[in-house]
Write a structure and sequence with these properties.
The complex is a heterodimer of chains A (373) and B (361).
Chain A lengths: L1 H15 L12 E11 L5 E9 L9 E9 L2 H11 L3 E3 L5 E5 H4 L4 H9 L8 E5 L3 H5 L3 E2 L2 E2 H14 L8 H9 L6 E8 L2 E11 L2 E6 L1 H10 L8 E5 L12 E18 L3 E16 L8 H28 L7 H8 L1 H7 L3 H7 L1 E12 L5
Parallel strand pairs in A: 1-4, 1-5, 5-6, 6-9, 14-15
Antiparallel strand pairs in A: 1-2, 2-3, 7-8, 9-10, 10-11, 12-13, 13-14
Helix pairs in contact in A: 4-7, 8-9, 10-11
Chain B lengths: L9 H12 L3 H13 L3 H25 L5 H9 L1 H33 L6 H16 L3 H11 L1 H12 L17 H11 L8 H5 L7 H29 L2 H4 L5 H8 L8 H32 L8 H14 L3 H37 L1
Helix pairs in contact in B: 1-7, 1-11, 1-14, 2-3, 2-9, 2-11, 3-9, 3-11, 3-16, 4-5, 5-6, 5-14, 5-15, 5-16, 6-14, 6-15, 7-14, 8-11, 13-14
The chains are: A alpha/beta (373), B mainly alpha (361).
Chain lengths: 373, 361
């Protein structure tokens, strides 16, 4: 008898002790799928929020709802958006954050503060910089049959695998953003005829957007940083003899394996030299001219590609120095391994970084050529 | 004498030491130690572990003199009845304050990370009830649960290993940036998340076997935990750049927040729910230490009867710690208490007993 009383009491207590303080039901939430931040003409933050509406029945496909609001801070803009929609805005499932070019030219950290501070935010959302306005890209609503946020997210993901853009999430750039010795880079998105193109890298310095890398330079930068994805493809013109240009003159290769060694040397007069040695094993993907079974031709190609790639690396690094983007973390290396030099340089690292001498050497070795000779 | 049913094996003893040491402190340790020792923070933890090893030697040597007495029964034997009993009460209040601080800190973390809307009293009551359920049992039952809950530590190690996908080794260099003086100072800071080994004073007589084996078990437990802490601090130092480290107060949780899987997006929440287990075991061991003393004085050795009002005291202590100035005061008191009751006093007592023994022979 006593046991039954006890059981009743327990059930009774349990009924009244469900987690009521912190419950946040999905049916009362509107989930933000993506957010865009632009500079409004009055200097405020123009926010574009993409909200995913999951339909009640399973036959219908989910739909996007887009809201534009203004605010001084990210949260104010979000609150303003919340005023215009039913139920509560929630950012747990945010997948993508886009920053418009003009806004990106200012310090972007304030946009992210709320994301780092809020324990409920999703830190694994991807980030990108949009050419023109982020609002314009989100306004596409759909690309083909795919919802815009999903399309951008998947697109960036696939481009990470082809070493075109860096793997960047909100969480991953946090340590780099706060570090004085390194700058981060982000994917650069361009809207082109109703589609989104992701093939470039936007360079940042001091949380500010300072320049863009071309597609091949983007791949080169990621290889220099030793962040190769699954594939990394280049197409180069092979102009061993001067003839007129035709499609026989081109060669496409994939970097199968890349070994990177970076050394920061301090020479007399505090001249910083960065030696970058890369050894690539490449696979010829496309070469209509053929005759790859001749050893002489292969050696010639190796030399030619090594030179071409070294030049490309030099151009890339020069461009980065011009943009003051220390994407390779040279300052970080100085802090860690040459703290005395860093102390003298850190005051004017912006200028000093541009004086750093880079000496990249890339050795290309053709190891595979497909199933024909 | 010690009843048969509350005897524990040496393996269990090791886990008791482990579980008493691991608590809520590890979550914020990387942040605190980095602030002082910079990239050398992990060395600080190792130094702290060594220091604790020395203290464990002292404690074991002291307990060895009285193989069938807990601290509460041998204190009066050494210092005389009045002073001994007074000291016993000092120890009881030190243990209670420790338990209260752990509880308050844990409630803080949960409030900040998961249950923002839940009032503090509800959190405290829920965790205290769970602790009470375990604390009223005899030592053997407690020890068994401690063994099981140690699995959570393995989960933590595995989860941290995932962080190595995304580390930057240059963040810890230059290792001696802060200087050796600061690294040692960092060690004194990391001593506090490692406290809990005081449980030796209370559980020593319950352990089966010879004194050498007991010492080995306690040392092994301490070594495991020191290595675990050093590993976690090291991992956090690699993942977060120095500038970020000072911004986030619970680097360990923050690290987990960024990881995500296909199935689970927020590992930190799942982890924190598991960690409740580990924190409550730490709390139980403090409560056990205190209630054994209370039981000896007021309930003829039945610690069970002292548990309910000890819980009440803890509840009050943890409610008061809502105010940061009071929780800072607790921390300061604990530091003083630790150095006097766990380092200083046992050393003096040990010298004392040697002297007494010598005079008798």
């Amino acid at each position: 008898m006593k046991r039954i009383y006890c059981l009743c009491a327990v059930i009774f207590i349990l009924l009244f002790m469900t987690g009521c303080w912190d419950q946040d039901l999905l049916k009362n939430a509107r989930l933000i799928d993506g957010g865009g931040f632009d500079l409004a003409p009055n200097g405020k933050l123009l926010t574009t929020l993409v909200i995913r509406d999951v339909p009640a029945s399973e036959q219908q496909s989910p739909k996007n709802d887009i809201i534009f609001t203004e605010g001084n801070t990210t949260m104010e803009a979000r609150d303003n958006a919340d005023d215009q929609i039913s139920r509560h805005l929630r950012a747990y499932k945010n997948r993508i954050i886009l920053i418009g070019e003009e806004r990106a030219k200012q310090d972007i950290y304030p946009i992210f503060d709320i994301l780092y501070r809020d324990p409920k935010s999703a830190l694994n959302a991807r980030i990108g910089v949009a050419k023109g306005k982020a609002a314009d890209i989100f306004s596409l609503k759909k690309v083909g049959n795919v919802l815009i946020t999903e399309e951008i997210d998947e697109l960036i993901k696939s481009k990470e695998e082809t070493t075109t853009v860096p793997k960047v999430t909100i969480e991953k750039i946090y340590p780099i953003m706060m570090d004085p010795g390194e700058d981060f880079v982000l994917p650069y998105l361009v809207e082109k005829g109703g589609r989104v193109d992701v093939s470039r890298i936007a360079m940042f310095h001091n949380h500010q957007f300072t320049g863009i890398l071309r597609p091949d330079e983007s791949i080169m930068y990621l290889l220099l940083k030793d962040k190769k994805g699954k594939t990394a493809r280049f197409t180069r013109k092979i102009n061993i003899r001067n003839g007129h240009q035709n499609s026989y003159d081109f060669l496409t290769f994939n970097v199968e394996k890349s070994e990177q060694k970076m050394k920061v040397l301090i020479q007399s007069g505090n001249q910083i030299t960065v030696k970058l040695d890369l050894k690539w094993k490449v696979n010829i993907i496309e070469y209509p001219k053929d005759r790859l079974n001749e050893k002489k031709i292969v050696t010639q190609l190796n030399q030619h590609l090594s030179k071409e790639m070294t030049d490309l690396a030099k151009d890339t690094l020069k461009k980065m120095q011009k943009a003051r983007c220390d994407g390779l973390g040279i300052g970080r290396q100085l802090i860690a391994f040459h703290p005395r030099i860093w102390k003298t340089q850190k005051e004017d690292w912006d200028g000093n970084y541009q004086k750093v001498h880079f000496a990249p050497v890339i050795q290309v070795e053709i190891t595979k050529k497909g199933i024909i000779n | 004498m010690i009843p048969e049913k509350s005897r524990i094996s040496q393996g269990q003893f090791m886990f008791i030491v482990v579980q008493s040491q691991v608590g809520v402190g590890i979550l914020s340790l990387p942040n605190k130690v980095q602030a002082i020792a910079k990239g050398g923070g992990w060395i600080s933890v190792l130094i702290a572990g060594l220091a604790i090893q020395v203290i464990i030697l002292i404690l074991c040597a002291l307990c060895k003199q009285f193989p069938s007495d807990t601290i509460y029964s041998f204190l009066p034997k050494i210092t005389g009845k009045f002073l001994g009993n007074l000291l016993c009460f000092a120890y009881i209040s030190y243990f209670l304050l420790s338990a209260g601080t752990v509880l308050a800190k844990f409630a803080d973390v949960v409030e900040r990370w998961v249950l923002q809307g839940t009032p503090r009293w509800a959190l405290l009551i829920l965790s205290l009830l769970t602790c009470m359920y375990l604390a009223i049992e005899n030592l053997r039952v407690i020890a068994r649960l401690f063994v099981i809950s140690s699995l959570t530590i393995i989960v933590m190690v595995v989860l941290s290993l995932m962080g190595y996908v995304n580390v930057n080794f240059s963040y810890i260099f230059p290792i001696t940036e802060a200087g050796w003086g600061k690294i040692v100072k960092g060690a004194s800071e990391s001593l506090f998340p490692l406290v809990g080994y005081e449980i030796i004073l209370v559980t020593y007589p319950f352990v089966e076997g010879k004194s050498g084996g007991k010492l080995k078990a306690a040392s092994l437990g301490n070594m495991l935990i020191t290595l675990f802490y050093a590993f976690e601090v090291f991992t956090c130092l690699l993942i977060f750049s120095p500038a970020v480290m000072s911004e986030i107060s619970e680097p360990l949780l923050y690290m987990l927040k960024g990881f995500s899987f296909q199935l689970i997006q927020r590992i930190d929440l799942i982890f924190l729910s598991l960690w409740v287990f580990v924190v409550s075991t730490a709390m139980v061991s403090w409560i056990y230490m205190a209630t054994v003393g209370l039981g000896r004085f007021f309930h003829r050795g039945e610690h069970k009867k002292a548990v309910p009002y000890a819980m009440f005291i803890l509840f009050i202590l943890a409610m008061m710690a809502q105010d940061p100035s009071i929780s800072d005061f607790y921390d300061r008191m604990l530091k003083i208490g630790h150095y006097t009751f766990v380092v200083g006093l046992p050393l003096i007592l040990l010298c004392f007993t040697y002297l007494i023994r010598k005079r008798r022979t």
